[in-house]
Amino acid sequence: MDKIRIGIIGGSGLYHIDGLENVSEIYPDTPFGKPSDSIITGLLEGVSVAFLPRHGIGHRISPSEIPVRANIYALKSIGVERLISISAVGSLREDIKPLDMVIPDQILDRTKMRINTFFEGGIVAHVGFAEPFCNELRGNLIGSAERIQTRAHSSGTYVVIEGPQFSTKAESLLYREWGCDVIGMTALPEAKLAREAEMCYAVLACATDYDCWRDGEETVTVDMVISNLLKNISVSRSIVSDLVSNITSDRYCKCGNALENTIITDKDRIPKGTIERLGMLVDKYI
Question: Is 211 a catalytic residue?
Answer without folding.
Answer: yes
